[in-house]
Amino acid sequence: MDTPPTIHTVITIPETVLTAPWPAGVVGRYLARAGATVDIRSNLGNHVYASCTGCDWTDHNVDYYTRQKAQEHAERCLGIPLPATS
Question: CA-to-CA distance for 79 and 77, rounded, in angstroms?
Fold first, then answer.
């Protein structure tokens, strides 16, 4: 049986994604596959949640696994950063 060819995609991440200051309230950040970020925010340490800047994924469950779920989403998400709104 023939093995299908492997397809590799190279994505160039803009330098600004890596060097820009984090938004207020962001306490952790994971880089998604296409340049978006999954941000972990904390509200005075009482409420932790995560959201993706490249799609509509969020996790508002306050539990030990929020960071793990954020990292797992970042590993799979192919969303590019959504444009900033003013």
Answer: 6
